[in-house]
Amino acid sequence: MKIILDRPICFFDLETTGPKVGKDRIVEIAILKVDIDKSESQKVWRINPEMEISYQATNVHGITDEMVKDEPNFKHYAKEIYEFVKGCDLAGFNSIKFDVPILVEELIRAELEFDFTKTRLIDSQVIYHKKEPRNLTAALKFYCDKDLENAHSAMDDTIATYEVFKAQLEKYDDLKPNIDFLSEFTKRNDNLDFAGKIRIDSDNDAIFAFGKYTGQKVVEVFKTDTGYYSWIMNGDFPEYTKKIFTQLKLSLLNSE
Question: In order of start, what are the domains of the chain with their CATH numbers?
Answer without folding.
Answer: 9-128 (3.30.420.10), 136-185 (no CATH), 198-255 (no CATH)
